[in-house]
Amino acid sequence: MHRSLLLFALVSTAVPAQQAPMPGSIDSGSIDSALAAKPAEADRPAPRIYDLLEAQDLRSGAERAAATLERGLEGEGLSLAKLRSAIDAALPRLTGHPRTAVTLRAARTTDEAGDLYSLVERTVDQLRFQSVAEAQRPVGFPQPAPIDEVVLKSYPRYRMAVATMDRRTGMNRPFMALFDHIKTNDIAMTAPVQVDYDDGSAEARSTATMAFLYEEPEMGETGPDDRGVEVVDVAPVMALSIGATGYDTPERTEELQQVLRAWLEAHADFLEACGPLRTMGHNSPMVPARRRFYEVEIPVRWTPAQRGH
After folding, report:
1. Superfamily of domain 3-11+132-307 in the CATH hierarchy
2. Burial track 195-234 (b if 16+ CB lie within 10 A, e otherwise)
3. Which of 17, 177, 271, 293 has the most CB atoms lying inside 10 A of its own CB?
């Protein structure tokens, strides 16, 4: 049962020498400027909860779009006409992937066939990305967010063991304290590992907490132990979430936080933040960068006006 624990125990000491390129890395500036032309508030529907059915629909649409885009990559030589035609055919299948659709729509106007080919190739990889499942998710947890797309998730009540980390101690001390806690109490490792940033900034990393999540909320008992770990219950909560690949560096996490903040600002008539920035890490260092998956999230709640409906 603890084989996966040994893999996860390396997380705190694994520091990549260089951020590996992500299989769908896109120009967030061009995306955000294109998305700024949003419809009037009265024309926007309330955000939907990202559930299993929607996750399956998005996966199906992503696979169909990837297969369509792949046709533009076939054959010898580079053809702008073929690439643009493939993009045009794929766009209707990307209604659940607005950031990806905006990127493709903007890129199709380029006259550089090589650049467009590379972007389409990366987008196919992104749409087909499947994370490596190394451990069970806690019972009732929502599906992972799609890569580079913002979704609204609903988390059930869950129990977690928490340890504090700061700039001085880094991740190693709290991680090992949590590792010892679950090993001693015969608690199975789950994924994701949750990190909350109390100051709202992953770049500052001044104070944060790391948590291992229990598989079921009734397991064990709440309260502190002698390792500096405290077991707490987390009430049901919604969260804005965006999926990402590679390593969750402070710079990349901060960039994705800004994407979430911009989305929240555009939907301020429906939702408001109600908790600190957090990351949900799904993989151990044994997984190569191109297969690694994590999520950046902001807990949210309906605005008073929406709660009154």
Report:
1. Regulatory factor, effector binding domain (3.20.80.10)
2. bbbeeebbeebeebbbbbbbbebeebeeeeeebebbbeeb
3. 293
DSSP 141-170: PPPPPPBT-EEEEEE--EEEEEEEEETTTT
pLDDT of residue 165: 84
Instruction: Give which of 277, 296, 21, 8 is closest to 144, Cα–Cα.
Output: 296
Contact call for residues 299 and 275 (beta carbons, < 8 A) = yes
Pick the range with the lowest mean pLDDT from 28-32, 55-59, 110-114, 262-266. Answer: 28-32
CB 162, CB 210: distance < 8 Å: yes
User: What is the pLDDT, as a whole number, of residue 166?
Assistant: 75
Q: What confidence tens digit (pLDDT) does each residue in 48-75 have? A: 999 999 999 999 999 999 999 999 999 8
Indicate the pTM of the whole model.
0.85
Tell me the domain boundaries of the chain: 3-11+132-307, 48-127
Residues in the chain, overall count: 309
Find out whether 202 and 277 touch, Cβ atoms under 8 Å.
Answer: yes
Taking the CA atoms of residue 248, residue 253, residue 255 and residue 257 in that order, the dihedral angle to the nearest 10 degrees is 150
